[in-house]
Amino acid sequence: MSSDSTDSSESTGTEGTDAQAAGERTAYVIVGGGLAAAKAVEGIRESDPTGSILLVAQEDRLPYERPPLSKGVLKGEDEMDTAFTHDRDWYAEQHVELRLGTAATVLDTAKHELTLDGGDVVGYEKLLLATGSAPRALDVPGADLDGVLYLREMQESEALKARLTDGARVVLIGAGWIGLEVAAAARHHGSSATIIEPQAAPLLGVMGEQVGGYFAELHRGHGVELRLGEGVERIEGDGRVTGVVTKSGDTVPADVVVVGVGITPNTGLAEGAGIETDNGIVTDPGLRTSAEGVWAAGDVANWRSTTLDTNVRVEHWANAQDGGLAAGRSMAGQDVTYDPIPFFFSDQYDIGLEYAGYVPRGTDAQVVLRGEPSSNEFMAFWVVPEGEGVRVLAGMHVNVWDTIDDVQRLVREHTVVDPARLGDPGVPLGEVAASTA
Ligand SMILES: Cc1cc2nc3c(=O)[nH]c(=O)nc-3n(C[C@H](O)[C@H](O)[C@H](O)COP(=O)(O)OP(=O)(O)OC[C@H]3O[C@@H](n4cnc5c(N)ncnc54)[C@H](O)[C@@H]3O)c2cc1C
Questions:
Q1: What pLDDT is stored for residue 1 in this prediction?
Q2: Of 11, 123, 125, 258, which sees the most CB atoms within 10 A?
Q3: How much is the mean pLDDT over the chain?
Q4: Tens digit of pLDDT for each residue in 104-163?
Q5: Region 401-405: what's the mean pLDDT?
Q6: Annotated region Disordered: where (predicted)?
Q7: pLDDT digits (tens, 9 = 90+) for 262-290
């Protein structure tokens, strides 16, 4: 990707778009600088090669993908530039005007106008909110000390990587995806890693205790100390962090603390405009919001899933990619029903995993294992009883590749299966459906 990807000088001036100069509305305005924003351009250009597009992004970088920030880039195996979705030339070829380093501050859906930081007002025909999410802040004394870091943006990944040195003492607050992936990167660099997590297992909300326990063992096996069932009382230091004091009174020495306690969708612009929000921006299956001419996609969208018959908000890469593309298509007039089975992936040490499906909060799902977790090659399914068997709500593999399409099919088709065959690695996954009595 282009090495000048962070140079936004040509696009952050105060001059308006060509359309504005002519007193016209911009055909498409995209707010956001992540994967969903970049993919929306592709979706629009599939059927509208010439309509004016303005992309407004708060970060002073071209739109980029975040997964490498906690994996290859953080481990020093990949260059940061590999994270950019497209290089600058691509946007020029697509006739996209970029306003990087510029936040959109007010959306007026009645006037079809967007106000930008600095006061420029842009008229739009159609607008996409792809504003993503922001890390939840840790609200304890000492959370503002030097060395207490978050991981969402490129410069945060750069700052963290610089501190993951051999022998550095790294404390992760939260055993979610960020905490686990950063722990793996820390160990890669020879830093020590301690995870403090109030729940009984990592990833408890998504995986449950049994599969979460697998991740605890995985990390222990790589020398990570896990303090489960333990909260954080305060962070200590004298300007710079020196340790984390737990609720039970222990002090865990730290040179670096990484907070990964979840994210919240960036709904402020939508809320200010009176657009319906409820755990994100509510959309229909075409990713249209409650305001005429406004769409939403990516982490911020709480979209209507036809297959799952509920609204779903997904904080993962595939949803930003596919949702952004679908929103762009929908904006440009294609007939779109966005209806994927939610999907995510992670890489830690020598394991890769993919998960597909959706388990509504509060569901009393049982877990069916296929294979032995300690082998680091297994699958897990989250199921509920139905008829003579069970219905698969979600499934995951660890290092059992080329299986996720079958998992998605089971979820999408609401297939009822025999749990014994589902859990038997000797029965091809594509054939477990035929097992229903
Ligand atoms: C470190 C890290 C690792 C990850 N790893 C994985 C992984 O392994 N697998 C996986 O499935 N998912 C992963 N994810 C999640 C995935 O990256 C997100 O789901 C994805 O980035 C969402 O894309 P998005 O475009 O919706 O939003 P974002 O990527 O959050 O981008 C939104 C952008 O909009 C900008 N913005 C917000 N408000 C405004 C405004 N008012 N005006 C202008 N711009 C604004 C923000 O500054 C931001 O740049 C990871 C996330 C992180 C942070």
A1: 33
A2: 258
A3: 94
A4: 999 999 999 999 999 999 999 999 999 999 999 999 999 999 999 999 999 999 999 999
A5: 97
A6: 1-21
A7: 999 999 999 999 999 999 999 999 999 99
Which residues line the pocket of ligand 1, CB cutoff 6 A? 31-37, 56-59, 66-67, 69-70, 103-104, 130-133, 151-152, 178, 266, 269, 298-299, 315-318, 320, 344-346
Could you tell me which residues come within 8 angstroms of residue 22 by beta carbon, excluding any fewer than 6 positions away? none
Tell me, in angstroms, the distance from the centre of ligand 1 to residue 433's CA.
36
318-333: b (≥16 Cβ within 10 Å) or e: bbbbbbbbbbbbbbbe
- Which residue, 51, 41, 145, 46, is CA-closest to 98? 41
Ligand 1 centroid, distance to 265 Cα (angstroms)? 10
Give percent of the chain with pLDDT exceeding 90: 92
Ligand 1: centre distance to CA 133 (Å): 6
Whole-Å CA distances, 403 to 335, 344, 366, 421? 30, 14, 20, 15
Residue 272 in contact with residue 282, Cβ under 8 Å? no
Closest CA to 91 of 42, 28, 43: 42
Closest ligand 1 atom to the C-alpha of 70?
1
Q: For ligand 1, atom 32, which residue shows the shortest CA distance? A: 132
Cα 390 to ligand 1 centroid, rounded to whole Å: 35
Mean pLDDT of 331-358: 98
Q: Which of 98, 317, 319, 338 to mutate to test the pocket of ligand 1 (most atoms within 8 A of CB)?
A: 317
Is 435's pLDDT higher than 80? no
Q: How far apart are CA 269 and CA 136, in angstroms?
A: 18
- Inform me whether the pLDDT recorded for 401 exceeds 50: yes
**Residues forming beta bridges with residue 292, ordered by sequence position:** none
C-alpha 67 – ligand 1 centre gap (Å) = 9
Q: Give the C-alpha separation, 53 to 66, whole Å.
A: 23
Question: How far is ligand 1, taken at its centre, from the CA of residue 258, in Å?
Answer: 18
In order of 152, 184, 232, 250, 370, the CA distances from 261 in angstroms are 12, 17, 12, 20, 30
Pocket test for ligand 1, best of 29, 39, 66 (most atoms within 8 A of CB): 66
Q: Can you give the length of the chain in residues?
A: 437
**What domains are defined for the chain?**
9-134+264-331 (3.50.50.60), 137-261 (3.50.50.60), 352-435 (3.30.390.30)
Spacing, Cα 280 to ligand 1 middle (Å)? 14
196-204 average pLDDT score: 98
Nearest CA to ligand 1 atom 26: 298
Whether pLDDT at 173 is above 80: yes
